[in-house]
Design a protein that fits this description.
mainly alpha, 0% strand, actin filament binding, Nebulin_repeat
């Protein structure tokens, strides 16, 4: 069956000047890396001849000299220590201006006059503000406000003192809990406590068995001759493989 087709495949010949063949050759030439770098490879084989006085060489040397840190600071290093027209560094306008700017920016010199004058203040002892400050200090003083218990300011057998002691005893946590001391060590069952009863009530509310009745627990009798039962039986007989 395929003998004629196999023989025909070997006899097919495509002309080399067809548009498809020419387009494929052109695409191969465009994507070929060898043809892409062929001109560059041939130019490298020819070598190069660059003279020392060529313009690119001179440009590179000039750029190197400009960028060189040594050439950049050469003039500055030569001018160090030479002052023209000034017998000393203090008379140089630029140095004097720099020293003045540094003095203005110095925080210690800026606050020197203030620090010298702030200790030379004389206030009369009977000034109104001083008296008000003393009264305020007396009012807010913790020493004058608080009287410690061992420094009695009244007789211990006065009625108000006795009443105060009774009030302190009533408010005392030790006296308040003294009635419960006899309960320590006595066993106690949690059955009937508030937390246990609350947990049981919550369990009854969340119990699914008590909340709903299962369908299998319902007692019912199905009618055998109802239309839906008869229809189901008929469908079962029609679908039965037997």
């Amino acid at each position: 069956y395929t003998e004629a087709w196999d023989a025909d495949k070997k006899s097919i010949h495509v002309m080399p000047d067809t548009p498809d063949i020419l387009l494929a050759k052109a695409n191969a030439a465009n994507v070929s890396n060898k043809l892409y770098v062929q001109a560059w490879e041939e130019a490298k084989k020819k070598g190069y001849d660059m003279r020392a006085d060529a313009i690119p060489i001179k440009t590179a040397k000039a750029s190197r000299d400009i960028a060189s840190d040594y050439k950049y600071k050469e003039t500055h290093e030569k001018e160090k220590g030479h002052y023209i027209g000034c017998p000393s560094a203090k008379e140089d306008p630029k140095l004097a201006w720099a020293a003045r700017a540094m003095a203005l920016q110095n925080d210690r010199l800026y606050k020197k006059a203030y620090n010298d004058s702030k200790t030379q203040i004389h206030i009369p002892v009977d000034a109104l503000s001083v008296q008000a400050a003393k009264e305020c200090q007396t009012l807010v003083s913790d020493v004058d406000y608080r009287q410690y218990l061992h420094q009695w300011t009244c007789l211990p057998d006065q009625n108000d003192v006795i009443h105060a002691r009774q009030a302190y005893d009533l408010q005392s946590d030790n006296v308040y809990k003294s009635d419960l001391e006899w309960l320590r060590g006595i066993g106690w069952l949690t059955e009937g406590s508030v937390d246990v009863v609350k947990a049981k009530k919550a369990q009854e509310l969340l119990n699914d068995r008590l909340y709903r009745t299962r369908p299998e627990q319902l007692k019912f009798t199905s009618i055998t001759d109802s239309p839906d039962v008869v229809l189901a039986k008929t469908n079962a007989m029609q679908l039965s493989d037997v």
